[in-house]
Amino acid sequence: MESLSAFFDMGGYAAFVWPAYALAVAGLLSILVQSKTAVNRLQRDLDRLRPPRETPTSSSDPSSVNAGANPGEA
Amino acid sequence: MSAFLALVKRDVRLSVRQRADTVMVAGFFAITVILFPFGVGPEPGVLERIGAGVLWVTALLAALLSLDHIFADDAQDGALDLLLSSPMSATALVAAKVLAHWLTTGVPLIVLAPILGVTLQMPSTSVMPVIIALTLGTPTLSLIGAIGAALTLGARRRGVLLPIIVLPLYIPVLIFGVGAVDAAVMGFNAERLYIVLAGLLLIAAPLCPWAAAAALKAGR
Amino acid sequence: MHALANPNRFLKLAAVIQPWAIAVCVLCFAVGLPYALVFSPEDYQQGNTVRIMYIHVPAAWMGLFSYGVMAAGSAAFLIWRHPVANMVARASAPVGAMFTALCLLTGMLWGQPMWGTPWVWDARLTSMLVLFFLYLGYMALGDAFERQEQGDRAAAILALVGSINLPIIKFSVDWWNTLHQPSIFSMAGISVDSEMLAPLFLMVGAFQSYYVVVILMRVRAQVLSAKVRAARLMQAAG
Predict the structure, then answer these.
(1) Following DSSP, what letter does each residue of C87-135 receive, concatenated?
(2) Do A11 and C227 touch (CB under 8 A)?
(3) Buried b / exposed e across A22-45, counting CB within 10 Å, b at 16+?
(4) N or C: which end of chain A has fewer CB within 10 A?
């Protein structure tokens, strides 16, 4: 597969082009993963502290609005 | 106005009585500048080429050193709260403190710099430009630094935090300050660069005390 | 806009937007990456290294864009006490810092084959470096206080101070650059072939929609965190 190896070679600049794309993937993935894990962890914590009612509702159930959980309070 | 001047006088008198700020800043400035010949070697030409840059960077760092005290001392003994509740506007309060800070830490830098320029083998044509540039630039350093000091009041690790916040903001003053001295020494027209420095000062003079005052009020 | 100040209402809106943003993001990458890596032409002078541009330029744009969002959110927070605005600002910071770092690193990878040196004190790269430190300062300051609200307000003020300074810094770095650097080193002087525009825009679109996805996630995390804190307090009291 001549053209495939030529593709990876990037005209001799492989050592520069591929690390650049690898860095991009690494950066994008790490932020994404960290954000997702934070959301999952916090949602689990919240569910443990305040078990959702039997009838399935969305995560923003009305009781949470009044429970003093107002981040706007400075 | 009289309250403003009274505050300036009080701060200057406190600082002079303690002597720590002025001596510390002057001492740090001198010792750090003198380190450079040891670092880069005393060959003619090298020191002269980097002289203006060395003076300015070191002046920046020296100004940074002394910023800690603008508000911290008064905050510690409650005097800051009293001053903030007084009829004087917070912006005027900050302006007064900045003026006092510059008088006790900026002026010694201006006085010392030409002398230290000699150790850096800077030509005699650099003396006036250095004095003018520093006179125009150091008040801006105090002004910008005051914002950093106000923002980090009460923060953890403010010793490391303050430089990270303030030094990037110092870069324009540094660039034009060194540029003015280098231009003058090379025989070019430095006036335009003095004007830029003066312009930066004129922008900073009203804006920085206002921002610092907002930071102080936000922190209470 | 003020209706969105309520975190829960914002989260409901976010839940609607999120799947679309993800779809756009995946689409842009799916089309943009092959375009960037395979189908777009080599540059006449730079050969295949020009493909780094498809990462470097969108990253630079996002670094600046994120800071703009951070500054706007900070302003809204300080002026109107818009809590969600502050959350968006805080969420924007690490993402923007990542993009700025990516811009700097890919700039180095691009510079080495092009000019034989990884770091060039090009006006744009230098400004990006300063921007990176502005991000660091914002993040460090925001986390440096016992009381979260004090950190939020201090960081917000810093974001605004930084945004005013950014053009001044850029202006001074530009001037400094003309003094010390021959203009051939300028990264701005790349003639972009029209065939390179499509993958470039696709990559910008990909990064931009990625940003929306991640920001919405991070704001959700902040809201959840506040709810968890409140729930814990109630438990301790009850």
Answers:
(1) HHHHHHHHHHHHHHHHHHHHHHHHHHHHHS-S----HHHHHHHHHHHHH
(2) no
(3) ebbeebbeebeeebeebbeebbeb
(4) N
Q: What is the ipTM of this complex?
A: 0.89
Hey, what are C163's tokens? 């945004």
Helix (H, G, I), strand (E, B) or coil at B187: coil
pLDDT digit string, tens, across residues C35-94: 888 887 777 777 788 888 899 999 999 999 999 999 999 999 999 998 999 999 999 999
Q: What is the pLDDT of residues A13-52, one digit of tens each?
A: 778 888 999 999 999 999 999 999 999 999 999 888 877 6
Tally of domains within chain B? 1
Chain C hits for A12, CB-CB cut-off 8 Å, are: 47-48
Q: What is the pLDDT of residues C179-199, one digit of tens each?
A: 775 544 445 555 667 777 888
| Beta bridge pairs of residue C43 | C47
Q: Is C176 on the interface with B (CB under 8 A)?
A: yes
How many residues does the structure list for chain A?
Answer: 74
Helix (H) or strand (E) holding A28, with range, is helix A14-49
Q: Give pTM, 2 decimals.
A: 0.88
Least confident residue range of B66-75, B134-143, C83-92: B66-75
Chains that touch C (3 or more CB pairs under 8 A): A, B
One DSSP character per residue, C23-81 reads HHHHHHHHHHHHIIIIISPPBTTTBGGGGGHHHHHHHHHHHHHHHHHHHHHHHHHHHH-
CA C155/CA C153 separation, integer angstroms? 5
B48: pLDDT confidence band, cut at 50, 70 and 90? Answer: confident
Instruction: Quote the Cα angle for C128-C132-C133, to 5°.
Output: 120
Q: Which residue of B has its CA nearest to C154?
A: B151
- pLDDT for the residue numbered A2: 60
| Structure-token pair, residue C138 | 């914002």
State the residue range of the domain holding B50: 2-218
Q: Which two tokens stand for residue B132?
A: 């003018």
Partner residue opposite B156 with nearest CB, options C144, C169, C171: C144
d(CA B210, CA B91): 5
Please tell me the number of Cα atoms within 13 Å of C200 on its side-chain side: 15
Residue burial B158-184, b: 16+ Cβ < 10 Å; e: rest: beebbbbbbbbbbbbbbbbbbbbbbbb
